[in-house]
Amino acid sequence: MKYTKDHEWLRVERGLVVVGITEHAATQLGDVVFVELPEIETVIATGDEVVVIESVKAASDILAPVDGEIVAVNEALVDNPGLVNEDPTGAAWFFKVKVDDLSVLEEFMDEDEYNELVG
Amino acid sequence: MAEDLLRLGLHALHVARGGKMVPFAGYEMPVQYAAGVMKEHLHTRAAAGLFDVSHMGQVILRPKTGYEATALAFEAMMPVDVLAVAPGRQRYGLFTNDTGGILDDLMFANRGDHLFVVVNAACKSADIAHMTERLSDVCDVIPVTDRGLLALQGPQAEAALARLVPGVAAMRFMDVAILPWQGAELWISRSGYTGEDGFEISVHNDQAEALALALLDQPEVMPIGLGARDSLRLEAGLCLYGHDIDTTTSPVEAGLTWAIQKARRTGGARAGGFPGAERILQELATGTERLRVGLRPDGRAPMREDTALFAGDATPIGRITSGGFGPSVGAPIAMGYVATAFAAAGTRLDGEVRGKRLPVTVSEIPFQTTTYKR
C-alpha cells in the first residue's frame, strides 16, 4: 500500500490503482454521512476534485492522486457512507483508476513514511 | 491554539475524557469526545448527555426598589411578558434593537426576589453592557463569574440527576429551583437546548468538577461536545444566535411569535414599549416578507449554512442559515429564510450545492418530536 500527503491510500489490484482514505483521515473527518462519486470513464488529472465526502462536521474532497481514467466506483458508499469510518482501508475504497504506467506509484510514501507524517 | 482563548473550568476534565478542543465564542471548547458526533447525538436522545456550557453568561438582576420595577424595566428590553413569570419559573426571551432585529436570545427566571438570566457566550459582554445601561436605576446587574453551567439532557437525565439531587424529580419543564448537593447550592432549571427533557445546572467553580465527575459516573451519562449539541438543537428546530437569528432578523420573521405573549401585543395589557415595537407589532398584524422554515434535502447531500435557495428562477428566494445531517432523523436537515410565498410546508425548492441545484422540500419544524416534561 502507498500513501499520499492528502491521506489517501493507493493499492494495485489487477493492474488498476484502487484509492481510499486512511484511518487517520476517516477519524479526522468524523462520521461520514454522504459520499459523491465520479462517473465511470471520467478522465482525471492529478489534483482534480474527484470525490466529495461530507461528514457530520464539514465537506471535504478527495483529490485525484494520479492521472488516468476512472473505471470503477464503490456504489456501496452511496447507500452506506458510514463504511468510510468502519473500514476505511478495506470495504470503503472509493474508485479504481486505469493508469498508463504503474511505476507512478513509486513516488508515494510507504507505510513507515506515512506513519511518520501522521505521528 | 490562539493564546487569547479562554479556558473552561473543566478544561482538564474534557481533555482527559478525549475531548477535541476547538475555538468557539472565545473559549476552547470540546467539539466532540472519542465517541464522535453521531454516537454522542444518538446517546443523548436515548439516555443522557452531559454538556459543559460554562461559556454562557450567567447574570443576576438584583432589585434596588422591588421585584416588579426590575421585571418591568427588563420587560422594556424585549417583546416578552416578564411580569407574568411566577416565582420558580423560567421563560425564553429575546433582546431586540430599535429596528426590530434580535440582539440575543436568552433564558430568564423569577427567583422570588430577583431575576436570573442566561445569555449566549458570544453576546455576553454586549448583553451585560446593554442591561447595565437600561436597568441600573432599578437593579444591580451582577455577572456571575464564579459558577460553571452544566446541561444534562436526554430521557434518562432525570433518573441520573435524581440519584444525586432527589428534588429534581418534582420539577416540571421550565421550573427553576435551588437545591443542595454535598453542601453546595445548585441552581437548577428543567430546560435545555436539545429538544429533550433535561436540566441546566449552575454550580460554583469549586464544585463543578466534582459534580461533572459524579454525573459522568452515572451509567446513563456520556460527555457530549458542541458538534452533537448543534445537530441536536437543529433537529429540535431551535435557533442558533448569529446564524438563524441576528440583528437583521425580527422575531416574527424567525417564527418566534410564540415568545411574544399577549400582554405585549397590540391590545394587550402592556402592549409595545420594547425596542423595535413598531416593526414587530406591524409584522404580527400583516406578516413578513420572509420566514424561517425547516428544509429537507431530497438527496443525501447536506445543505449547509449559506446555501442559496431557488424556486425556478436565476435569483435566489432564500438562504440556509443552519444545515447538516440529523443523526436521529437519519437524513440531512436544514433551516433557513425563504420569501413568504415559498414558506408553506411541502413547497419544492432547489438548493445550490457545489454549483449544482439539488431538490429540497420545505418542512415542518421541529424535525424531531420534543420530549419536554410539561
What can you see in these coordinates?
- The complex is a heterodimer of chains A (119) and B (374).
- Chain A is of the alpha+beta class and 119 residues long.
- Chain A has one domain: RNA polymerase II/Efflux pump adaptor protein, barrel-sandwich hybrid domain (OB fold (Dihydrolipoamide Acetyltransferase, E2P), Beta Barrel).
- Chain A has 4 helices and 9 strands; from the N terminus they run βββαβββββααβα.
- A 6-stranded antiparallel β-sheet of chain A has the order 1-2-3-9-8-5. A 3-stranded antiparallel β-sheet of chain A has the order 4-6-7.
- Chain A is globular, with a radius of gyration of 13 Å.
- Chain B has 374 residues and is of the alpha+beta class.
- Chain B has 2 domains: 287 residues, 2-Layer Sandwich (Gyrase A, domain 2); 86 residues, Beta Barrel (Elongation Factor Tu (Ef-tu), domain 3), CATH 2.40.30.110.
- In chain B, β19 and β20 form a beta hairpin.
- Chain B is globular.
- The chains are: A alpha+beta (119), B alpha+beta (374).
- At the A-B interface, β4 of A face α2 of B.
Using the coordinates above, name the CATH class of the largest domain in chain B: Alpha Beta
Note the overall shape of chain B.
globular
- Which descriptor suits the 3D outline of chain A? globular
- The amount of helix of chain B comes to 10-25%
Number of strands of chain B: 20
Q: What CATH architecture label of chain A applies?
A: Beta Barrel
Number of domains of chain B: 2
CATH superfamily of the largest domain in chain B: Probable tRNA modification gtpase trme, domain 1
First-last Cα distance of chain A: 18 Å
Q: Which secondary-structure class do the elements of chain B indicate?
A: alpha+beta
| Beta-strand content estimate of chain A | 35-45%
Report, as a whole number of angstroms, the end-to-end distance of chain B.
Answer: 42 Å
Query: Could you give the count of β-strands of chain A?
Result: 9
Sheet having the most strands of chain B: 6 strands, mixed
